[in-house]
Amino acid sequence: MSEHQEKTHPILTTADGVPIGRQHALTAGPRGPLLMQDVQLLEQMQHFNRERIPERVVHAKGSGAYGTFTLTHDITAYTKASIFSTVGKKTDLFIRFSTVAGERGAADAERDVRGFAIKFFTDQGNWDMVGNNTPVFFVRDPYKFANFIHTQKRDPRTNTRCMDMQWDFWSQCPESLHQVTILFSDRGIPASYRHMNGYSSHAYSFINNQNKRVWCKFHFKTNQGIKTWMDDEAERIIGKDRESHQRDLVDAIDRGDFPSWTLKVQIMTQEQAGQFRWNPFDLTKVWPHAEFPLIEVGQMELNRNPQNYHAEVEQAAFKPSSLVPGIGFSPDKMLQARLMSYADTHLHRLGVNHHQIPVNKPRCPVMNYMRDGQAATAESYGSAPNYWPNTRDRTPRPDESFVDPTWDLGQVVVDRYDSTQDHDDFTQAGDLYRMFDDAHRERLATRIAGTLSQAREEVQLRQVCHFYRADADYGRRVAAKLDIDVSQFE
Q: What are the DSSP calls for 413-466, one per residue?
């Protein structure tokens, strides 16, 4: 190394900052064995053995970017959330897109639901909107969630994806039909993360300054327009590039072509919810736009790529339990379960102090009595007391002005209710099917039959009955492609 290089290049050090003079293994002679005192080599090998953290059970393969949300419309009549307080207000954010079922090595262009998770760094704490690119989901009862995900993973015996497992579950859970129809429709494979919508899917609540609560759903409409791949296009892309979505997002932002979305919300009053013809907190159903029109709120733009994937994307932690004053929960059973599940998985993957990782760190003061644990920095509390209540000066304490209003859910009985009873799981799936033109219906039936044909005959028959209940033509088309005689259903 030249004298000039020595002066201009930073000096290589150990993790403790100790300068390293030469990066070669320390040995007894040029051909001799290694010495245990080569702590620089040992440190490097030990760190290398621990570089990987547990991957997410779902949403393992993802891409992220930084951006800004700008409020363009006044919705203070519905919510006191500070992010929505003043038209023109800008809030920094981080977003992570993902596929759902595949592992970290899965191809981006596979037919799968896409995750759409946003962390808004508001001045009253982080708000995580953890959604998907579809407005509904496969199940409404959280007891079914883990079992459903197992069917999307690998067969315990063969360690391969198993269509019989997948369709066996779906065929016994007719509430999945709406999402199945979306998944196998022409929107089932987005061309890129930039060309798809995002949805909260769940209903949440807005609370305004008068402590009045309404229910809401969030819709992020892509300003790039919807663009999807047909099956043959996706297969060709996967053959060339398994990271097609990742590459597209990074390249677009690097060249200044910043993707953007328009945030819109649907609003439902408590009175409307009580009189609605189905459970408005059912995750397998949408709120009709004609009855609950979309209200424009603001613009989201992505304008900066992460510098280090592991630190900023792999360690990003999103959890539906992270809400801010003015935005609250709903009685959605799946949402209630996710409040624990997502926070718990980050405790497992990243540790109890994962909120101190820069990509997750709030941009406002953090003051509480939760202390210590692995990787604690103590930067927000130092030598301050670690208990409450206390009589010390200038210690954090609750503020009654942030108490949420109570829920008026009427007289209810707490029980383990069967979520398959007293539900119409076919009308909306049929309505969606009837919106497709004939060619789209044919492609839908072909895709479904392509995977359903790999399931056992009893599974095929059970599932075809569901398609038939949604729409007779839907059932006939799929049955014909499976060589099933539909006269037995008519």
A: ------TTTT---SHHHHHHHHHS-HHHHHHHHHHHHHHHTTS-HHHHHHHHHH
